[in-house]
Specification:
The chain has 92 residues and is mainly alpha-helical. The protein has one domain (8-88). It is 57% helix and 0% strand. Helix 3 crosses helix 4.
Length: 92
């Protein structure tokens, strides 16, 4: 499977200017997802990937692809397909 978009972690680290060894405040899932979506947008990630991440909470890249469950990968791929299918539907 190809890598989908740029790595949002690099952008996330730049956005917040924090070193990895500094303590970070606790964030809830919605806050983390929001930061990641903004990071993806900043690096120009494929909108289909952003959609799939928002829908599934899964981000697929070369580093984690082999560790993700088959069901997570299938859900992510299905969300990508759903995004592109929606683009092909006629406007009503």
């Amino acid at each position: 499977m190809p890598s989908y978009g740029a790595d949002p972690w690099d952008t996330l680290n730049r956005m917040h200017g924090r070193k990895r060894d500094q303590p970070k405040p606790d964030m809830n899932d919605a806050e983390v997802r929001s930061i990641l979506v903004n990071a993806m947008a900043e690096v120009g990630a494929d909108p289909a990937v952003v959609y799939a991440f928002r829908k599934t909470g899964v981000y697929v890249c070369e580093e984690n692809e082999k560790r993700l469950s088959k069901s997570s990968l299938q859900a992510f791929d299905a969300a990508i397909d759903e995004y592109y299918a929606a683009l092909l539907r006629p406007i009503q």
